[in-house]
């Protein structure tokens, strides 16, 4: 062996450090720096050139090469909110649809977490109570329709139209809850029994009482949707003032709530047109139903 081969490397020559193995990287996705994949054990609190938070669907395919199956829930973040950190140049968002853009990335991750936590809580409450309300509406119409249509056959198309819309609303919120991993209310069986009983009892009282029930329920539901939309718009404005860029997911949710609210108010108009005000006693019947709806909304947001 030659002497040149046996000489040791000078101490001044730094050795290349191997990147953190991705197979051991589960807590937070890799941090991309200048196109070079380097896994980190933690996300630093201060980024110099900005960070874009991207959705899991936008991760590059090479990220998962040779990587074992990831657990469904990561210790730090879950898949309901953007979790992938990518290094970008200043003042450039790139081609990704980001929830928080690079212009706001000078703030540390600890500054972003409260906004995410607030959004996650508001999202879970909204989807849970909305699904409960749409379930109750479909059960009310299911119980009312046979009795009402038997005495008033001309109302069959209207009852079918309102039921179909409520069933579509319920399917929409079921998909959103599955997508965002929001659990349904624990009182699901109780609300099902009460909604069916309300629809059946008001239908026995006659067409006017059944329409008064629709009037009361849709009034409270429309008011509730308006409150949700105002709250989401206020959160959006506050985040934009702080420098965050709200992605399309929140905007699509607001548009969905607006569409469903308008259809619910359409049901209210149909009920009034079909003599809901003639139910006796109208004030007592609608007042009791509206009070029950408010209580169900309050409980479903928390349980």
UniProtKB/TrEMBL annotation:
The enzyme's E.C. designation: 1.14.99.60
Binding residues for Fe cation 2: 166, 218, 264, 267
rRNA-binding is among the record's keywords: no
GO biological process terms, semicolon-separated: ubiquinone biosynthetic process
Record note on cofactor: Binds 2 iron ions per subunit.
The keyword DNA repair appears for this protein: no
Superkingdom of origin organism: Eukaryota
Keywords, in A-Z order: Iron, Membrane, Metal-binding, Mitochondrion, Mitochondrion inner membrane, Monooxygenase, Oxidoreductase, Ubiquinone, Ubiquinone biosynthesis
Catalysed transformations (reactions): a 5-methoxy-2-methyl-3-(all-trans-polyprenyl)benzene-1,4-diol + AH2 + O2 = a 3-demethylubiquinol + A + H2O
Membrane topology: Peripheral membrane protein
Pathway the protein contributes to: Cofactor biosynthesis; ubiquinone biosynthesis
Cofactor(s) needed: Fe cation
InterPro entries: Ferritin-like_SF, Ubq_synth_Coq7
Cellular component annotations (GO), alphabetically ordered: extrinsic component of mitochondrial inner membrane
Similarity comment: Belongs to the COQ7 family.
Subunit structure as annotated in this protein's UniProt entry: Component of a multi-subunit COQ enzyme complex, composed of at least COQ3, COQ4, COQ5, COQ6, COQ7 and COQ9.
Identification of the protein by name: 5-demethoxyubiquinone hydroxylase, mitochondrial
Gene: COQ7
């Amino acid at each position: 062996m030659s002497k040149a081969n046996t000489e040791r490397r000078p101490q001044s020559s730094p050795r290349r450090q191997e990147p953190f193995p991705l197979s051991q990287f589960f807590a937070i996705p890799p941090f991309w720096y200048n196109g070079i994949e380097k896994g980190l054990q933690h996300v630093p609190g201060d980024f110099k050139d900005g960070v874009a938070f991207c959705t899991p669907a936008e991760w590059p395919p090479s990220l998962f090469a040779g990587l074992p199956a990831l657990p469904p829930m990561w210790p730090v973040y879950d898949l309901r909110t953007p979790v992938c950190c990518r290094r970008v140049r200043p003042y450039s968002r790139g081609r990704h649809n980001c929830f928080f853009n690079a212009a706001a990335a000078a703030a540390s991750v600890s500054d972003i977490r409260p906004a995410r936590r607030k959004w996650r809580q508001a999202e879970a409450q909204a989807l849970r109570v909305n699904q409960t309300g749409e379930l109750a509406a479909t059960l009310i119409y299911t119980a009312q329709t046979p009795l009402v249509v038997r005495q008033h056959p001309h109302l069959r198309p209207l009852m079918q139209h309102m039921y179909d819309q409520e069933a579509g609303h319920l399917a929409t919120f079921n998909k959103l809850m599955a997508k965002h991993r929001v659990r349904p209310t624990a009182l699901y069986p109780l609300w099902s029994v009460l909604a069916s009983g309300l629809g059946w009892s008001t239908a026995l009282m006659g067409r006017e009482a059944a329409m008064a029930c629709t009037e009361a329920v849709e009034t409270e539901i429309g008011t509730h949707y308006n409150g949700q939309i105002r709250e989401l718009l206020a959160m959006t404005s506050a985040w934009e003032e702080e420098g965050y860029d709200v992605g399309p997911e929140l905007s699509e949710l607001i548009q969905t709530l607006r569409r469903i609210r308008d259809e619910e108010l359409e049901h209210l108009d149909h009920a009034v047109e079909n003599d809901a005000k003639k139910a006796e006693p109208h004030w007592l019947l609608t007042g009791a139903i509206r009070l029950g709806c408010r209580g169900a909304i309050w409980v479903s947001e928390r349980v």
